[in-house]
Every structure is written in C-alpha cells, then in structure tokens.
Amino acid sequence: MEGTAALATDVRPWRTAAVVASAIAALELVVLLIVGVALLAQPVAEKVRDAAVAQALTPPAKKPKVVPLGKPKLDRSETAVLVLNGNGRTGAASTEADRVRAKGYQVASVGDAPRRDYARSLIMFRPGFAPEAHRLARDLRIKIVGPLDGLRPAALQGAHAVVVLGER
Q1: From 2's CA, which of 17, 29, 81, 85 has a CA 20 to 30 Å away?
Q2: CA-closest candidate to residue 137, choices 120, 117, 112, 153
Q3: Is 153 in contact with 163 (CB distance < 8 Å)?
Q4: Which residue, among 159, 156, 133, 132, has the nearest Cα to 144 in the 3D structure?
Q5: The whole model's pTM is what?
Q6: What would you measure as the largest C-alpha separation in the chain, in angstroms?
Q7: What is the per-residue DSSP string for 60-129?
Q8: Are 147 and 67 in contact (CB under 8 A)?
Q9: DSSP label at 141?
Q10: Residue 101: left if φ>0, alpha if ψ -120 to 50, beta else—which one?
Q11: 3-state per-residue secondary structure call for 24-38
Q12: Mind listing the pLDDT tens digit for each residue in 40-96?
C-alpha cells in the first residue's frame, strides 16, 4: 500500500500545477480583454460622438419638388384603358373593366397581366398621359400610379393607361 500512496502524491503536484497555470492564463485573458476594450472604446466613442454632432449640425434634407401634373388633355371618354388581371381571380379584369366604363372611360382591351401575384392594384401610363392616369386612379381609388414598367407601349393596344389588378 505504501507504493500506491506514494504514487498518488506524485500525481497531485501535476494537477495542482495545471490548475494554477490555467487560472493564471484565465486571469491574463481577462486583463487583456479589459485593456483591449479600454483602448478601443475611447476612439470608437469619439467617432460616434463626432458622427452624432455632424448629423445634428446638418440641416434636414429638402423634400423633392413636386412637379405639377397639369390638367388632363383628354376627356374621360377619349382616354383608353387596358385592364389586366394581376391577381389570378377569374373574371376580376372583366368586372374592373365594367367599373372603368361606368366612370366614362374607353376600355381598349381586357386580359391577363404577365404575373398573377400583384399584391396591390396599380395604374401605369404611357409617356405624356400622367394627368389622365392620376385622374383614373382617383376615380378608381387606386393609390399606386407610375410610368410604364415592364410593358412596352406597343403592348397597350392603343391604350393611354393600364390598370393592373392586385389583391387589394
């Protein structure tokens, strides 16, 4: 038994030395982290403060000037509208075409949009017909109005504006 007791005491100094060395390494790591944060925090804080001061002293951005559209050149009865179904519901374009006609517009054609996943209805217009498109949007209570996007004027079949129906 004396041999095993002597063997057990020989192993413990290694364990103790390993624990002490690990504790010293952990302490050094903590000290290095504190010193690193202290050294980096001041320059970063200065840059943040300088950016905040610069932003506070910068005058607010000016709103873009709104160009008045002017009055429509064409009467409602002279304005041709292409109605496209962009929501995938059967008969939606036909129903909307009836609403367009009831407001006094010509319906150039009714069909399907290239996509069927439009979330919102919108109106697009050919160059030079923005006032007519905005009047149509007011009449149909559609809020999104913009120039032709994704459609060529030749695909409009003579229409001045396009109504693309979405889910809402």
Answers
A1: 17
A2: 120
A3: no
A4: 133
A5: 0.60
A6: 115
A7: PPPPPPPPP----SS-GGG-EEEEEE-S--TTHHHHHHHHHHHTT-EEEEEEE-S-S--SS-EEEE-TT-
A8: no
A9: T
A10: alpha
A11: HHHHHHHHHHHHHHH
A12: 777 878 888 888 888 778 777 777 666 667 899 999 999 999 999 999 899 999 999
